[in-house]
Specification:
Blueprint lengths: L1 H25 L14 E4 L2 E4 L4 E6 L3 E6 L5 H10 L7 E2 L4 E4 L5 H38 L5 H34 L2
Antiparallel strand pairs: 1-2, 3-4, 4-6, 5-6
Helix pairs in contact: 1-3, 1-4, 3-4
């Protein structure tokens, strides 16, 4: 029973890390990367569709994204969706493709994005700690109901703490990488 609680806690912690990675992808750096457009949704024949499902997105010359839609008639819709997204990008289309140049980051925007990344990392740490609290609470309930011994509960709580520590370390490492990426010129 306690193994199920630990396994569930680990799964939930993994989801927190995945969520952090998605959040970090939305914080753009000075370099072009197709994942920057992962959150862009285009109205395609009345259905909200991810931009990545409507064409190829490639990096051109390091600082520009080149979008080649599979259907040329949706170029205008893609351009509007990118403009409406809160990414601060200005696409230009030539009728066949869309180029999205990455504006260089000023020192001020770098610091702002770093602050945003720090907040996302802190939210992930809080989520992991909340998962630890939930797991420990479940373990205490098992002990109260005499389904596990006090020693079993203590051992399981130690496992949960080790899991928590490893996931907090992973969050810290991911944040340090993102911070270095944002502050590199």
């Amino acid at each position: 029973m306690e193994n199920e609680i630990i396994a569930e806690a680990e799964e939930r912690m993994r989801k927190s890390i995945s969520s952090l990675e998605v959040s970090f992808k939305r914080i753009r750096t000075g370099r072009a990367h197709p994942s920057i457009l992962d959150s862009v949704i285009v109205s395609y024949y009345g259905t909200d569709t991810l931009l990545s499902q409507l064409g190829n997105i490639n990096v051109e010359e390091g600082r520009t994204l080149l979008i080649s839609p599979w259907e040329k008639n949706i170029i205008g819709d893609i351009e509007k969706a990118i403009l409406k997204s809160d990414l601060g990008l200005n696409p230009s289309n030539n009728g066949d493709t869309i180029r999205v140049p990455m504006p260089p980051l000023t020192e001020e925007t770098r610091k702002e994005y770093t602050k945003q990344a720090k907040n996302e990392a802190e939210n992930a740490r809080v989520a992991v700690r909340n998962i630890r609290r939930d797991a420990n609470s479940d373990l205490k309930n098992l002990e109260k109901e005499k389904e596990i011994s006090e020693d079993g509960q203590r051992r399981a709580e130690e496992k949960v703490q080790k899991l928590t520590d490893s996931f907090i370390d992973a969050i810290e490492s991911a944040y340090k990488l993102k911070e270095a990426d944002l502050l590199s010129f």
